[in-house]
Amino acid sequence: MAHPSQLGFQDAASPVMEELLHFHDHALMIVLLISTLVLYIIVAMVSTKLTNKYILDSQEIEIVWTILPAVILILIALPSLRILYLMDEINDPHLTIKAMGHQWYWSYEYTDYEDLGFDSYMIPTQDLIPGQFRLLEADHRMVVPVESPIRVLVSAEDVLHSWAVPSLGVKMDAVPGRLNQTAFIASRPGVFYGQCSEICGANHSFMPIVVEAVPLEHFEKWSTMMLEDA
User: Fold this and answer.
1) Where do the H-state alpha helices sit in 157-206?
2) Which Gene3D superfamilies match (predicted)?
3) Residue 77 CA: distances (Å) to CA of 72, 74, 143
């Protein structure tokens, strides 16, 4: 959960998000080193009146400043491609959930069960109880088991939406007439919040996403209770 004045990312709750955080730190360190070098060169050029004739016309320096940026780009591109393939990998999901975007709420369908589905609306501010978050709480949470590969099929019924949960490292566009898929593994129990990340109309900011990760035995009890209520 993000907090006021937070500068960094939310704490990772999935292996993919941990990889994304590591890559962010890796890329940021490269940017910091480049910025420091460029700043030093600018200060040196401005503050000194001396001129080195070997710098004005040097084939060796031109070779270095041509090859070095290419090496730096490779150091950034290879980890990035690795994470892209990791995010696209879906191996034998234990559970498949279909998330449909509507104006302006989400509906979830657990396709491995015969009749398990529900709509998820934002809880109005006046109905919140102490400890709940304004504009982020939903009346029905998407409950998933911990440490299990979860596949989410994302689509929309009316306009473009986007199903995004930052702490799980998940963001997938919901396009009418198209079925996109993404996957995640919740590495620890908890409640993780997200919001629609595609401007979808007047109430775009009022369709939160709440994912609750629980141990497997608790998930089985919850699913049994939901099936009985249905």
Assistant:
1) none
2) 1.10.287.90, Cupredoxins - blue copper proteins
3) 9, 5, 35
Which residues, 6 or more positions from 224, have their beta carbon under 8 angstroms from its beta carbon?
Answer: none
Share above pLDDT 90 across residues of the chain, in percent, rounded to a whole number:
75
| Residue 91 pLDDT level (bands cut at 50, 70, 90) | confident
Nearest by Cα to 89 from 167, 11, 149: 149
In the CATH scheme, what is the homologous superfamily, with its name and number, of domain 95-229?
Cupredoxins -  blue copper proteins (2.60.40.420)
User: Tokens 């709509």, residue?
Assistant: 119
For 150-162, the pLDDT digits (tens) are 999 999 999 999 9
| 211-230 core/surface letters (b: 16 or more CB in 10 A; e: else) | bbbbeeeebeebbeebeeee
Architecture category of domain 15-88 in CATH: Orthogonal Bundle (1.10)
What local confidence, expressed as pLDDT, does residue 109 receive? 95
pTM: 0.85
Q: What residues contact residue 130 under an 8 Å CB cut-off, 6+ apart?
A: none
